[in-house]
Design brief:
12 strands; 10 helices; alpha+beta; 5-stranded antiparallel beta sheet; Beta-Lactamase; 3 domains; 28% strand; 5-stranded mixed beta sheet; 44% helix; 350 residues
Length: 350
């Protein structure tokens, strides 16, 4: 029995047992993570409390209880009580227990597989774009240095100071372009990892944002106080989250809200690595959303939806999070844009 319990606790699929009235008798930790609620809160409740808008699935479960025949449905779209929509493969098996029948249900999220494939593609694109940018930066910075040096030499040879203003313009513009190239490359400083509290990072970002935004915008907190510290470079994480939160505030055009949220994910995969504990830090806003034509490219340098933007903030944020062994993903629709940052929390794994 202990071996079975250990197996259930470590499965990535949700496993539930329902009684003959479709009330929840047991659920494994993966199910708690899927529904984002503890077993203590939902045991004994009808399955309709967890899946309130899935009448077809409930009808299938009742039919399976009556007939005693199992069923499987692939790619089932299910709506959860908190409003989220998920895609799962569902397998339901009636179990005869004495004179009653119970129902064993296994839900395997397909979203996770799609997310991993999307993440691997994004990591490949990121590596390719970074290599391209670094090569391009090298080719740009060399002639810029030559131009700047030539302007300085020319300034010394000019017969009067009035003409020197033109050489100073060349020097200033060369310095500006060099700074832009350096920002495109992103931070080139090794991480200084120390025990870091994500809520201290959030509070620092919040204070900076509140100092910048107009009165019509609020910055709200939604923290999980039980989260432990993890190894990270707090200064660089502040920069990454500030870049995202600043974009969120600017997208609101003077009115709306930004949410800073922290949660924990268990047995979560980032790239090829599966982590026992993963921090999920979210920055959400209720602005107009990311334009459809930018959604696939928002982490690329120089991609921006604002005329005054440089398109470097999200690219730099992504680079910092990748250096921490984490990832960023964005989900956006009108009135809800969420940037989710995932960071490993295991000691020794950053």
């Amino acid at each position: 029995m202990n071996d079975c319990r250990h197996i259930l606790e470590n499965l990535s699929a949700t496993v539930m047992v329902l009684d003959s009235s479709l009330r929840l008798l047991s659920i494994n930790p993966a199910g708690e993570m899927l529904f984002e609620v503890s077993a203590r809160q939902i045991l004994g409740q009808p399955i309709t409390d967890l899946l309130p808008h899935n009448a077809a699935l409930i009808q299938q479960l009742n039919e399976a209880l009556r007939s005693g025949h199992p069923f499987t449905e692939h790619g089932l779209r299910a709506s959860l009580a908190d409003g989220r929509d998920i895609t799962v493969d569902c397998a339901a098996t009636p179990l005869a227990v004495g004179v009653t029948t119970e129902m064993l249900i296994e839900l395997t999220p397909v979203d996770r597989l799609l997310r991993i494939a999307r993440e691997e593609k994004m990591l490949d694109q990121h590596a390719t774009s970074r290599a391209l940018i670094r090569g391009l930066a090298h080719e740009i910075k060399n002639p810029l240095g030559g131009l700047r040096g030539a302007a300085q030499l020319l300034e010394r040879k000019l017969p009067n100071n009035e003409l020197a203003e033109y050489t100073r313009i060349i020097i200033r513009e060369a310095d500006r372009l060099r700074g832009l190239v350096d920002r495109m490359i992103g931070p080139n400083v090794p991480l200084n990892k120390r025990p870091t509290n994500i809520h201290q990072v959030f509070e620092h970002v919040r204070s900076l944002i509140l100092a910048e935004i107009p009165e019509g915008i609020s910055v709200r907190r939604d923290y999980d106080p039980s989260l432990p510290e993890f190894l990270g470079d707090s200064d660089q994480l502040i920069q990454a989250i500030l870049n995202i939160a600043r974009n969120a505030a600017q997208a609101l055009d003077g009115k709306g809200a930004v949410w800073l949220r922290s949660r924990v994910e268990r047995k979560f995969t980032i790239g090829q690595n599966r982590h026992r504990l993963t921090l999920r830090a979210e920055i959400e806003d209720n602005g107009p959303g990311v334009p459809d034509e930018l959604k696939e490219h928002i982490f690329y340098p120089m991609i921006t939806g604002r005329a005054e933007g440089t398109g470097l903030g999200l690219s730099i944020a992504q680079d910092i999070i990748h250096q921490h062994g984490g990832m960023i993903e964005c989900v956006s629709r009108p009135l809800q844009t969420i940037f989710r940052i995932y960071l490993p929390m295991e000691v020794g794994n950053g």
